[in-house]
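Dig into these lines:

——
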Amino acid sequence: MKLQRKNGLRATALGALAVTGALVLTACGSDDNTSGSSGGSGKATAASNISCEGAKGKLLASGSSAQKNAMDLWVKNYMAACSGVEINYKSSSSGEGIVAFNQGTVGFAGSDSALKPEEVAESKKICKSGQGINLPMVGGPIAIGYNLSGVEDLTLDAPTIAKIFNNKITKWNDPAIAKLNEGKSLPDKAIQAFHRSEDSGTTQNLGKYLGATAKAEWPYEAEKKWPAPGGQAASGSSGVAAQVKQVDGAIGYFELSYATSQSIPTVSIDTGAAAPVKATSENASKAIAAAKVKGTGKDLALELDYATKAEGAYPIVLVTYEVVCSTGNKSDTLSTVKSFLTYTASEEGQKVLSDAGYAPIPAEINAKVRETVAGLN
């Protein structure tokens, strides 16, 4: 990508992604942790610009729990505008979504990691004349949430986070944590580290961050399956957040919306910038805005800079992709898939993300997503 174009992308994206005011978030995981069933504000807003042309019947989709809150809002808005159409998104995990897609049981899948080469090869059995491609649709921060009585505004850096999740730091008053939090009284309490029990794109993105910034402390490949010894497992981001909420001394990782909706404090990250960076959608947007397209052809997989030291850029981010066939999509659901994804990638659909505390996809990349969706067959 040429420098001029990259700078243009960054400027455009930062303007589009600025999130103001307090974040009003709800659960985006496999279990609803809100008082209502919709997620977000709990309200569906009939969207006047949604085109329902060709959409019909029921569309099944599944995968990433990270985008559940956004998907809840999109589905409600879309179904309010398109009478007689039902979108059923099963929030499970990225791994399960890809399996379902490659088995041909869903019209599209949500994944927090781009398809691996072997998954692309497998998709060709379903996409008879094409292959699975990645369409970036949702961005946001992965928060490190913790529960430690009497301790607020905790700061950690990558090596310390790696050692905690790798069972090398086991007490909250460990010198490495104390050094990053001078002036705070840290208890002599055991750390209870929680991770995902199932294959998870959130796990993989955390692994990418730790691998890029603390390789000596995190010698594992970034995979969807949790790689480190020790710790305790919980199902889904909702399960990890629930454990952190309940257990004094706990720490875990999940999408920011869980922390916000359940009032779970989150770690600020010492990236080497002038000041530690808080986990906010606006700060995550600063990191996502520098993303480059690494996919080829119609595939729009992104390359993120997890080792960024830019001021105010929160480095632990993920992008959720909707996975579809480049060509060879099922004829009975193709029109509905195109109609629905046209809405989610629209300015109106992406604005829902800002309103819900997610980070919209940078404008220049999102234009390519819309072009690709329009050409699906």
Observations:
- Residues 1-47 have pLDDT under 50 and may be disordered.
- The chain has two domains: 3-141+326-374, 143-283.
- The domain at 3-141+326-374 is CATH 3.40.190.10 (D-Maltodextrin-Binding Protein; domain 2).
- The first helix runs from residue 3 to 17.
